[in-house]
Amino acid sequence: MRAAFASRFDDADPLAALTVGERPEPTPPADDWVTVELRATSLNHHDLWSLRGVGLTEAQLPMILGCDAVGLDPEGRPVVVYPVVVTPGDPRGVSILSEHFSGTLAERVAVPRSNLIPLPDGMAATDAACLPTAWLTAWRMLTTKGRVADADSVLVQGAGGGVATAAVALAVAMGKRVYATSRDAAKRDRISALGATAVEPGARLPERVDVVIETVGAATFDHSLKSAAPMARIVVSGATAGHEPSVNLRRVFAMQLEILGTSMGTPGELYELLAFCADNEVRPVVDSVIPFSRVEDAFARLHSGDAFGKVVIDHTA
Ligand SMILES: NC(=O)c1ccc[n+]([C@@H]2O[C@H](COP(=O)([O-])OP(=O)(O)OC[C@H]3O[C@@H](n4cnc5c(N)ncnc54)[C@H](OP(=O)(O)O)[C@@H]3O)[C@@H](O)[C@H]2O)c1
Q1: Which part of the chain is the Enoyl reductase (ER) domain (predicted)?
Q2: How far apart, in whole angstroms, are the C-alpha atoms of residue 170 and residue 208?
């Protein structure tokens, strides 16, 4: 079957490590796994990290990339794939598709049957394919970790990204005052259109916020600390621009801040997210929908840094 996979690692030029070509059909490793016929997927920064060699070893190559998927189960029903799989031996106890088990950028993928969630009525496959990784991460950052129900205001850093646009759209839909930074003026205009107050990175906000959504890391972390209200939660799920920021501990203890790490979310949280989006007519922010036949273009778009929202791949085109 046709697939997009990491055939080697290239830290400086991750696109050069991407191969699109033939791979063997998936072989479910246990009786409770099934094969899903893929209909739509979306890219994540995770796929670029994998091509750079972050989180994978040479022994795991070639590795089919892709975490997100919507497809048809063996009975032909449309399903959303929850991408976290129990993985004995991994220090986290789990892994995300494309780490230990083949990913979704292929014609078919094998997953545990219990990882399949019915596609909500009326939701397009290309929209739902945005939800299981970036949107699920943003949902957990806001709800379980950030306890946004008790918050009035939220700051989202690097708001052009997949997780960040999700956090903006969800927090606005929840009725919060949302501030968002982006380095790019055009992206700031688009963030404003989502209902947030867009500012330049590092700009002083009109108020200190209760929840900060951090996926950028070193480039924005000091601003996150300075923008946090007393007792605020700074929730971190990524570090695109550096994972070793300097942290002013005086500010952490004096303002009684909580810095919380998080990854992905639970199946229950994915059900909650799907229901929230369906009930509130919230739809993912989609940068582009690109046919699977041009999957290399999709990677180039994500790598360019110009994308606003999710880069989606249509496997039916
Ligand atoms: N832990 C988890 O479960 C989990 C899940 C999903 C993602 N992640 C992580 O979260 C991060 C974002 O993922 P994503 O898929 O949303 O990535 P993405 O779509 O590529 O977004 C990255 C965003 O970060 C901002 N950024 C990049 N470099 C920056 C810099 N030097 N200074 C300021 N801002 C910068 C950009 O925002 P502007 O252009 O708007 O400034 C960019 O749009 C990645 O590191 C990813 O690995 C973690």
Answers
A1: 13-313
A2: 20
Asked if residue 111 has its Cβ within 6 Å of ligand 1, the reply is: no
- The answer to whether the CB of 263 is under 6 A from ligand 1 is yes
- Mark 296-307 as b/e (b = at least 16 C-beta within 10 Å): eebbebbbeeeb
Q: How far is the CA of 29 from the centre of ligand 1 (A)?
A: 33
Over the range 186-201, which residues count as b (16 or more CB within 10 Å of their CB) and which as e? ebbebbeebbbebbeb
pTM: 0.96
Nearest Cα residue to 220 out of 275, 167, 164:
164
Overall average pLDDT of the 229-258 stretch: 97
Q: Whose CA is nearest to atom 16 of ligand 1?
A: 162
Confidence of residue 317 (pLDDT cuts 50, 70, 90): confident
For residues 270-293, give the mean pLDDT.
Answer: 96
